[in-house]
Design goal:
heterodimer, A: 121 residues, Arc Repressor Mutant, subunit A, 5 helices, elongated, B: alpha+beta, Alpha-D-Glucose-1,6-Bisphosphate, Chain A, domain 4
């Protein structure tokens, strides 16, 4: 299942194949920016910029945070060459996975409790 | 009663650890707040499994998930990844309810990886250990994309990120 991490690497390369996206990374290297500001800077529509940022976000190169109506973008992780870093990526995959598993188990627990109560009645 | 109240509290996220135990082994450890039988259920029922196996942030869509969880039974997961699809498939070698699952991963080129998952219940919580044994060091490196097997594009990415990093600190 490590292949999923590999797939994520592929996403990174795809993200960097586009000149605008490389420009966005360079821009964010200087300062955090809103999607609106980035769209203006690169003479693009908001929708177009959202798409580019989405690709960078999927690749883990950019993180975004919405405060009120403004979505701010900043650089994600740096550098990938160390083994410790791919292990960290692998850990992040499993961590995200287990966080979702928690929710599933939580639901099962709740369901059991409800079913148990019904049975006792 | 106290125990019940505790389990109803907002779930806290436990820490996930990953260890490269040898050239061919990766081990992931995590405690899940629930009894082993429920955790095991979430690993062995396809409709539950597909709800957590692919984190949303990965940009992958799970197109189908078939699991025949019994010794000799197979599984097949199909994902859409950008414009193509990826498949993961293999066979269950051991199925011990609530405590142990072993399956093969047969999609790789360099031989078969064997995944062993154990579930240990301690006071209503379950310690999950996922152990991957790769056919070779190369297979692990190729799969995980560590230094030796990294494609050229990754070096370019490194250079870019290093230059971005130095811009930030100026």
């Amino acid at each position: 299942m490590v292949q999923l991490v590999q797939a994520n690497f592929d996403v990174s390369f795809g993200a960097l194949s586009d000149a605008t996206r490389r420009g966005v990374l360079e821009q964010l290297g200087r300062a955090d920016a809103s999607i609106t500001a980035l769209a203006q800077r690169f003479h693009m529509t908001l929708t177009g910029m959202k798409k580019h940022v989405g690709v960078l976000e999927q690749a883990g190169l950019v993180t975004t945070e919405k405060v009120g109506r403004v979505r701010t973008c900043r650089l994600g992780l740096r550098g990938l060459q160390e083994e410790a870093e791919w292990i960290e990526r692998y850990r992040q995959l499993w961590s995200a996975r287990f966080d979702e598993l928690d929710k599933v188990v939580e639901k099962l627990k709740r369901k059991e409790r409800v079913d148990g109560r019904k049975k006792r009645k | 009663m106290d125990e019940r109240r505790e389990s109803e509290a907002a779930p806290t996220k436990n820490h996930t650890t990953v260890e490269r135990r040898s050239e061919r082994e990766l081990v992931v450890t995590r405690t899940v707040n629930g009894p082993a039988r429920l955790v095991f259920e979430a690993w062995t029922k396809a409709d539950l499994f597909r709800r957590w196996w692919v984190p949303r942030s990965y940009g992958l869509t799970l197109l189908s998930c078939e699991m025949d969880v019994r010794v000799g039974g197979g599984y097949r997961l199909v994902f859409s990844h950008q414009d193509s699809t990826m498949e993961f498939f293999g066979t269950y070698l051991e199925v011990t309810p609530h405590s142990r699952l072993v399956w093969t991963n047969e999609e790789g080129d360099g031989g078969m990886t064997v995944t062993t998952v154990t579930f240990d219940e301690i006071a209503g919580r379950t310690l999950v250990v996922v152990h991957d044994l790769y056919p070779s060091k190369e297979a692990l490196d190729a799969g995980a994309g560590s230094t030796g097997a990294m494609p050229e594009a990754l070096d370019q990415l490194d250079e870019l990120l290093v230059s971005l990093g130095s811009t930030t600190t100026q």
